[in-house]
Amino acid sequence: MERVIELEIGGMTCASCASRIEKKLNRLDGVTATVNYATEKAHATVPAALTAQDLIAVVAKTGYTAAEPTPSQAEPATSDEKRDPLRDRLLISVALSIPVVVLAMVPAWQFDYWQWLSLVLAAPVVVYGGWPFHRAAFVNLRHGAATMDTLVSIGTLAAFGWSLWALFLGDAGLPGMTHPFSLTARDGDAIYLEAAAGVTTFLWRPAPSAAPGTPCAHCSSSARSRSPCCGAAPSTRSPRPACGWATSSWYAQGRRSPPTAWWSTASRRSTRAC
Q1: What is the mean pLDDT of residues 115-119?
Q2: Residue 61's domain is classified under what CATH number?
Q3: Residue 42: enclosing H or E segment and its boundaries?
Q4: Helix extents (H) in 27-180
Q5: 130 vs 147: CA distance, rounded Å
Q6: Within this chain, do residues 53 and 97 fall inside the same structural domain, yes or no?
Q7: Phi and psi angles of residue 19, each rounded to the nearest 5 degrees, phi first
Q8: Separation of alpha carbons 118 and 116, rounded Å
Q9: Does residue 79 form part of some domain?
Q10: How many CB atoms lie within 10 A of CB 77?
Q11: Looking at the structure, do residues 145 and 231 belong to the same domain, yes or no?
């Protein structure tokens, strides 16, 4: 006899994470599972012999966390509870990245030792702002996988690492160094702090705004209280809703999964039909 198990998934950073968890769960005998990145939930139809702990163990081996949903009572949120640490991280990164990019792009504003100010501003963005990318890349590396987080982490760390070498061991740290526009690489005095900070901030994506299982405005106003964008059952097939992050490239199996970036290979990868 089959039954349905719902799990809350943690640690996902992009649509490919949901796809990887889904594939791992579907490899179990008799299991049909779908993972929704936007609602951070997994729905699985399993045989009676399997329990929720079996599914949680599979998710944990994949590098993510899972738990059975716990009933929660609606309470008025205070101002502290409404604060989103991820949004704070994004705002800090934006505030620090803007002067770094402006200094690098406007040679007339490059005063003496401007490059060291750029280093002071860019370092927190690459380390603190980019920590979710680096952590996700490390977790995926441990499991022999690579996602867009891996690309972002390697790219920003490479740009930041080269800039450190140029500043401390090259000529980029000398007073009076300018950073004019150039189509060719320069020897020893080129720094790419604006690339490291700018890419980290530009590719930042906020966490799903709605709590897991909370219908969006479109779904609340429609007759379907569980349309695909809010975690419908795998068998549900309905037109694409005009809400949230719904994208044509990843709108499959009732998922509303935002890609890491518009050029993400993972976001263009097709999935099997419902």
Answers
A1: 95
A2: 3.30.70.100
A3: strand 41-47
A4: 52-62, 79-82, 85-105, 114-124, 131-142, 148-168
A5: 15
A6: no
A7: -65, -40
A8: 5
A9: no
A10: 9
A11: no
Structural domain of 34: 2-70+226-268
**Crossing angle for the helix pair 193-202 and 114-124, to the nearest 10 degrees:** 30
138 and 94 share a domain? yes
Q: Which residues pair with 46 in a beta bridge?
A: 3
Q: State whether 44 and 95 are in the same domain.
A: no
Predicted TM-score (pTM) of this structure: 0.63
Please count the CA atoms within 13 angstroms of the CA of 91 that sit on its side-chain side: 6
Same domain, 141 and 110: yes
Co-location of 96 and 190 in the same domain: yes
Angle at alpha carbon of residue 254, lines to 251 and 256, rounded to 5°: 50
Is 80 part of any domain?
no
Residue 141 sits in the same domain as residue 245: no
Per DSSP, 230 falls in state: G
pLDDT digits (tens, 9 = 90+) for 209-233: 444 444 444 443 333 334 444 444 4
Whether 60 and 113 map to the same domain: the answer is no
pLDDT of residue 56: 93
Res. 27 pLDDT band, cuts 50 70 90: very high
Tell me the torsion sign for CA atoms 194, 105, 260, 9.
positive
Domain count, the chain: 2
Residue 35 is inside which H or E element, if any?
Answer: strand 32-36
Contact partners, residue 201, CB within 8 Å, separation at least 6:
90, 93, 94, 97, 125, 129
Partners of 47 in the β-ladder: 2
Cα 215 to Cα 39: distance, rounded to the nearest angstrom: 9
Mark 23-59 as b/e (b = at least 16 C-beta within 10 Å). Answer: ebbeebeebebbbbbbbbbbbbbbeeebeeeebbebb
Apex CA 10: angle with CA 20 and CA 43, to 5°? 65
Which pair of structure tokens corresponds to residue 43? 């729905």
